[in-house]
Amino acid sequence: MSPRTYRNPILDADWSDPDVVRVGDDFYLTASSFGRAPGLPLLHSRDLVNWTLVGHALERLEPAEEFATPRHDCGVWAPSLRYHDERFWIFWGDPDQGVFQVNAPQIRGPWTRPHLLKAGKGLIDPCPLWDEETGEAYLVHAWARSRSGVKNRLTGHRMRPDGTELLDEGKVIVDGDRIPGWFTLEGPKLYRHDGWFWIFAPAGGVETGWQGAFRSRGFFGPYEERIVLEQKDTDVNGPHQGGWVRTPSGEDWFLHFQQRGAYGRVVHLQPMRWGPDGWPVLGDDGAPVAEHRRPALPPQPPAAPATDDDFPGGRFGRQWQWTANPGDGWATQHSGDGLRLTCVRSANAHDLRKLPSVLTQRLPGTPSAIEVELRLDSDEPGARAGLAVLGDAFGWIGLQRGTDRTVHLVHRFTEAVADRERDADHPRLAPGGRARLRIEIGAGARCRFSYDVGEGFRPSGPVFAATPWRWVGALLGLFALAPAGPGHAGAATFTRFRVTPA
User: Fold this and answer.
1) Which of 32, 70, 177, 468 has the fewest C-beta atoms under 10 angstroms from its C-beta?
2) Is 17 tagged catalytic?
3) Where does the record place the Beta-xylosidase C-terminal Concanavalin A-like domain (predicted)?
């Protein structure tokens, strides 16, 4: 790859359902965050290739009691990011509650509390449009059949320009059942261009689908359609669902995802142009590109969302999210480096999938080695802490305090269909209550666990194949737990979290 080109994916981790907007010389991106907190990640770029994570727009999910425990496939689905009236706006659908929006004067906030714009089951993937020519505002959304019994159609509304209220009951403006061969139409993004209303919307399912474009002279239709991006003879399955953005010089680009199993939905960047017939042409005449000329934008130093963390003062970086709304005192600030996690008491300590107090970040999409140092400070029998790979199956390696007060190195796993963890290797003593933990992630998200308790790294257990949740890629996790009971159960300290190419 030359300095003048880039390779896809540009974000090689689970930044699901991306949407993008340009403000001046800056580009911003958000993505689905489902049931994790904080939610609505905010990424920044100057060249559309190198991205950094600058914050989140949603501190906690609401209503708070609904997300006090993990709901991995619920919460924030497919947000849309826009800039209007000198404010940033994000609209998203919670499939169990309805359409929400938040807004802020700056990308780093302060963001408003979530406003429920339309209540209802199965309302997903909303996108607003402010028509600069007429001053009118619109909203389009899709449907989740799992909640509403309805799918494969897009509904349009007029909206108050302040984004607080919809002005009608809504009308189906695109019915995918009427289009031969189309199914699972969803994820619409709404634009105005060249006198047309445009809806960019995917169909066909996340693993095998395609990107469609629809146009109409009036917002409520009728719309004509075209497939503008599909796999063809490439190895990029299901390239779709994302956003169009134009650079200051007038270049057009499209960002979308590719479903990659345990790695989640990674983000690709496609060149885009408008053909002589007025329709958009994405990628290489409708096929995704693997490598391409960079956008004609000022050169930027290489950048990517952070992964490593020294946890200065006990604080963790923006890349970390809890698996549900956080509780008080789960992470304690202090004067040194290292993440001090309280051993949260739980009757579900045997099943990490049910615990809100797991601190997670995205699984890298390329072969990597993950390392962290751990000290178990708790004297509570049964207290444990460790490093996990978390999906609908999980595996972890870490330390546990025995009933005889000794600390053991333990390695455990759970299959997707099981409800309790099992030993993946024989426990062994961990002198001093310390260990270095390591997970090597190879092709196919196959994970090899190892540990060092003072004698160098030793392998542990068989290979574990990471698995996704229903809509979410696998996660790396740090946790500290204790059995249910009274009183404080102590803490564990993690230091020097590192992710390095393998």
Assistant:
1) 177
2) yes
3) 309-499
Q: Cβ(368)–Cβ(466) under 8 Å?
A: no
Place of tokens 């590109």: 289
- The answer to whether 421 and 351 are in contact (CB under 8 A) is yes
Q: Report the distance separating Cα 352 and Cα 257, nearest Å.
A: 28
Arithmetic mean of pLDDT, 258-265: 98
Q: What is the pLDDT of residues 80-133, one digit of tens each?
A: 999 999 999 999 999 999 999 999 999 999 999 999 999 999 999 999 999 998
In whole angstroms, give the CA distance from residue 284 to residue 286: 5
Centre a 10 Å sphere on the Cβ of residue 436 and count the other Cβ atoms it contains.
18
* Tokens of residue 3, six digits: 């300095």
Determine phi and psi for 353, rounding to 5 degrees.
Answer: -65, -20
List Cα–Cα distances, 81 to 31, 172, 196, in angstroms: 9, 23, 21
Give the list of residues 6+ apart from residue 276 with CB closer than 8 angstroms, or none.
none
Which residues pair with residue 94 across a beta bridge? 98
Q: What is the largest CA-CA distance in the chain?
A: 77
Structure tokens that stand for 397 in this block: 């390696």
From the list 186, 230, 371, 380, the catalytic residue is: 186
Strands (DSSP E) contained in 189-289 are 189-193, 196-203, 210-216, 224-229, 240-246, 252-259, 265-274, 280-282
Please tell me which residue in 12, 14, 17, 371 is annotated as part of the active site.
Answer: 17
What are residue 450's DSSP bridge partners? 438, 459
> pLDDT class for 2, splitting at 50, 70, 90?
confident
3-state DSSP helix/strand/coil % of the chain, to nearest 5: 5, 50, 45
Sheet holding 77-84, edge to edge: 77-84, 87-94, 98-104, 115-119
Residue 1: pLDDT above 80? no
Q: Are 201 and 186 in contact (CB under 8 A)?
A: yes
Question: Contact 322/72 with Cβ under 8 angstroms?
Answer: no
Q: Which residues contact 441 (CB under 8 A, 6 or more apart)?
A: 363, 364, 367, 368, 369, 370, 389, 447, 466, 502
The secondary structure of 400-459 as a DSSP string is EE-TTS-EEEEEEEE-TT-SS-EESS--EE-GGGEEEEEEEE-GGGEEEEEEESSS--EE
421 in catalytic set: no
b (16+ CB within 10 A) / e for 481-495: bbbeeeeebbbbbbb
336-372 residue pLDDT tens: 889 999 999 999 999 999 999 999 999 999 999 999 9
Distance of alpha carbon 483 from alpha carbon 481, whole angstroms: 7
Q: Map residue 177 onto helix, strand or coil.
A: helix
The closest of 264, 262, 207, 212 to 236, measured between CA atoms, is 207
User: What is the rounded average pLDDT of the residues 262-280?
Assistant: 98
Q: Kindly indicate the confidence band of residue 405, based on its pLDDT and cuts at 50, 70 and 90.
A: very high
